[in-house]
Amino acid sequence: MALLKVEDLVMYYRTRKGTVKAVDHVSFEIEKGETLAIVGESGCGKSSLSRAIIRLLPRNVETYEGKVFLNGTNIMELSEERFRKEVRWRKISMVFQGALNALNPVLKVGEQVAEPLVIHMGMGKKEALKEAREMIKQVGIAEAFVDRYPFELSGGMRQRIVIAMALITDPDLVILDEPTSALDVITQANVMNLLKRLKKERDLTYIFITHDIALASELADKMATMYAGQIIELADSESYFGKPLHPYTQKLLGSVPTLREDKEIAPIPGTPPNLLNPPVGCRFRPRCDQAMEICEKEPPMFSLDGHRVKCWLYRGEE
Amino acid sequence: MLLKVENLSKFFPIKKGIFGKTYYVRAVENVTFEIDKGESISLVGESGSGKTTLGKTILRLYDPTSGKIEFDGKDITHLTEKELKWYRRETGLVQQNPFGSMVPHFTIFKILEEPLIVNKIGTREERREIVYNILREVQLSPEEFAFKYPHMLSGGQLQRVAIARAIIMNPKLVIADEPVSMLDASVRVEILNLFEEIQEKHHMSIIYITHDLSTTRYFSDRIFIMYAGHLVERAPTKELLRNPAHPYTKALLEAIPDPDPSNRFKFREVPPGEPPSLVNPPKGCRFKPRCPIATDKCDEEPPEVEISPGHFVKCWYAQ
Amino acid sequence: MSVVSEELSLKGVVRELLSYKSAILGLIILAGLIILSIYAVLFTPFAKSGALWNDQQVWLKYPRTAAPAWTNIFSSKKLPENVYVNMGKPVNVSKEGTRIKRTYVSKFSYNYDDTPSEIIFFFNTSYEKLRPKVSIYWMKPDGENLSLGTYRIRKGGTSIYLSNNLRLISDLQEKIEEELGKKINKSLTLEDILFRDFKTGGILKGTYTVRLDVLVKNETDRVEWQGIVYGKVYGLAGTDDKRRPLHLGLLWGAPIALAFGLVASLSITFIQLIISAISGYYGGRVDSVIQRLTEIYMILPFLPMLVLVQLLYGMNLWRLLLLLIVLSIFGTSVKTYRVWVMQLKSYPYVEAAKAYGASNMRIIFLYILPRLIPPTIPSLVLAVPGYVFLEAALAFLGLSDVNIVTWGRIVEEAFSEGALYKGYYHWVLMPSLMLVITAISFALIGIALDRIVNPKLKEM
């Protein structure tokens, strides 16, 4: 049984200009110990998807439906109260982007890391602090920093603290939302090393949200491409990088500059669609050089030996 | 030779309290290099490495603390704003944030006309002609875009306008400060290609400031690496990527992933820690606290050594 | 916080403004005030309004301290309005001795529930030798005839204040007491005598007849007359104790109030913006000097300085306005605006402008200041009534221009005449109402503008 199974998840929100279809019928599943990386350009809905899973919804949410099974239980059916008590942070935790904003500036980092234990697990403060101290050591920060305030820490250390906060409750699933976007490359590599180590040591399950496809390959066992609120390709990493199927994924990979191999890079023509009013049928159709007549109808998800792709090119190849 | 920078330093004073001691942020220290006409340089470094300060000091948006800047054989280090008028025409700047770099209440036309008005170039009709031509050159149709306001354009389109503004007076040197870091991957390539095209056509020199080493190989002749205010290595692009000599450059190259599913099975061998404070940097080599091969010798500032033609390294142990 | 959202155009603001019902109401009221002001300036002798207001002779034909006419609607007791007894043609011309006697008869109907406030006869004569003589007779609807005396008319204009003629009144009271056969314990007023039925004490409604016998020496001697039975209500806003119709005062006060408030608010805001821009943009020593100045200004005693200027130089509206501006330009807003400027100054487009050689002045006036105007407009609009009130408050303290009519001055006069003790509420309420209406209109518009320009408020 998959650890997490998402079925037809929908999350729309209202703005003054209309309804934004941020997450539009998304389905996928993750096994225990596996990492799924979701890549996409800014505004494709990947951050909304992560928030929809952990049910941190914007105030102006319009539609929120679908099924999310965690260890076989549909957590969408839980009341907000029960979700908060039993799921959020206990079972699913999150590492937010922009570590500085995710930390409370007037709380010492030790207390900060201990806080989820006190709030979500009902642990005593003393005991929680002891565990927090241990966790902080595990993310590679010297114990001496436990009594410091966030502003006294460097960017990389703050990001480690945020990771410690997400792991302290020993959750089943950790959502990483651009966890290194504000960091420099070497610090980023250090944080990625940490995430890899923790994954190995603790058999963690990650959902890794990023716009950086090269960075995604650092963690991903499975890769998913998100485009205009939909997942359009989903495959294990070897197959995804080795033989990408969706024209958008192919172009996305083709636009990534590489350091170690000489290859021509090419831009993707056109601009990403507007989630207020996405194109009818395949949403990539207006930018796709292989578009056909049938693309005006929305393609289903085709599965080629477990490599799933939402594109009419693969009709009949299942 | 177009630009010659000699022992250039830029310190920013910070005062603690009214009667407190003045400290200095040593953002750029002792930087020396030369750039030829039509050459494109990538200036690579992490945030806080001083690369942006160096760029702005070259453009004389900051007054240098010490050292010398020569442009086209003329010393511009200490010229006043009035004396710099001609220099402003010979240089252009493209900034990082396309959404903040345009006056929001001006149309695109007005934004592009401003440099011409300020520098008293052309009549009204001539200016119009120049603006329309430059818009065409950055592949924006004047009819469609000239009278739009910046907020109506996408990041990529705005960055094209920013490039147009930088080159509208046909400068000899353009400094582009992280011009694509705020854009989506798919748009980045477009903008970088445009830069390359324009640079070749106008035979301009470009200093491309970036934190992203992987984009530099596509269009720069040489790469300069900065770390904590020091220029630690400079070499032709291929040479630098193939034979990085400074331990910091090596770490930087190691840290950057290429898309590859086998990445997830290995750890990257990067030094721990983070760059030092520039108020109180380590003595000598600034990478010493993180450097895997550092010795006591590194407490002394290393000289710049040319280890192969055009490949300079500021390290005691470079071969 | 970014100072201002990018999508603000004038058109957009207006369109959004019209989506607020409160703002529409505010705009309608403001439009009304503006139309009033334009009307006052173009179609009334606005330029001479101050002189007219101070000239008591101009207002003789208006009742004293009359309430607004519309108060009758809300009252079961219908108070009288002015009744004019006009001359008409003489009904009879005859010889009496060496003189010519012209007899005039005028009728008017009186159906109010209260006595009038006053009765005056106005005469305008020209004659050769002898002064004309006039006898006035009064016939009430019940047929009672009263003689109101005989008067000699001087050359030019003469007014006969019947209500003040104590001799006549006591004579008439005696005559009535005789008729009734008993003494009346209080002294009656002329109006009681002329308009009441003494058996019931009520007002006699119906047609009254006034007869005038005018004796002149020569055929060519001219005597024109008019009698006014003054009412107790008048016009839209009533009158004050100097018979001045308040609606005119309010009308003349409107352009002054609007102009004063707008000019003060606009010029103070714009000068403050420029000072802030210079302070925030240049920083360093310039900034220090300006900031210390604002701090000194914060503790400047505003009122004593105004009093001092009035004592030394006297006060008029323009001097007051100028003083107000001078005393406000280094106000606390400079600190707020300066922070905005410092924020805008750090925008990349300012740096870009420096890179292509734009001068500091160009950057301040073309790039930075225009960005500051939209966010200051709500506070600018909201400040207008503040300055209108300030002028009123200063007028109340006697620190205003005595040569023009302002709302504040009307309130001040009402207070100094004890209007509230004497029950002349309209005298205070009408100008106050105008002040409040003005304040409300600007507040409604300003609050809506604030929501548009600072959209963060909208979500709350």
* Class from helix and strand fractions of chain C: alpha+beta
Distance between the termini of chain A: 24 Å
Look up the CATH topology of the largest domain in chain C. MetI-like fold
CATH hierarchy: architecture of the domain at 4-82 and 209-314 in chain A: 3-Layer(aba) Sandwich
Please give the most extensive interface between any two protein chains, plus how many residues each contributes: A-B, 50 and 40 residues
Helix fraction of chain C, binned, reads 40-55%
Overview of this structure, please?
The complex is a heterotrimer of chains A (318), B (319) and C (460). Chain A has helices at residues 46-53, 80-87, 99-102, 109-121, 125-138, 155-167, 185-202, 213-216, 237-242, 247-254, and strands spanning 4-15, 18-30, 35-39, 61-70, 73-74, 92-95, 173-177, 206-210, 222-227, 230-236, 302-304, 307-309. Chain A is of the alpha/beta class and 318 residues long. Chain A has a domain at 4-82 and 209-314: Rossmann fold, CATH 3.40.50.300. In chain A, β9 and β10 form a beta hairpin. In chain A, α4 crosses α5, α5 packs across α6 and α6 packs parallel to α7 (185-202). The longest helix of chain A is centred in the middle third of the chain and has 18 residues, at 185-202. Helices cover 29% and strands 24% of the residues of chain B. The longest helix of chain B is centred in the middle third of the chain and has 18 residues, at 185-202. Chain B starts with a strand and ends in a 5-residue tail after the last strand. Chain C has a 5-stranded antiparallel sheet with strand order 2-3-8-5-6, with no helix packed on it. Chain C has a 4-stranded antiparallel sheet with strand order 1-9-4-7, with no helix packed on it. Chain C folds into 2 domains: 10-56 and 244-459, MetI-like fold (Orthogonal Bundle); 69-230, Jelly Rolls. The A-B interface holds A 35, 41-42, 154-157, 184-190, 192-193, 196-197, 211-221, 237-238, 240-242, 251-253, 255-261, 265-268, 271-272 and B 46-47, 154, 156, 184-190, 193, 211-215, 217-218, 241, 251-261, 263-264, 267-268, 270-272, 274-275.
Features:
heterotrimer; A: 318 residues; alpha/beta; Rossmann fold; eight-stranded mixed beta sheet; four-stranded antiparallel beta sheet; 30% helix; globular; C: 460 residues; alpha+beta; MetI-like fold; Jelly Rolls; five-stranded antiparallel beta sheet; disordered N terminus
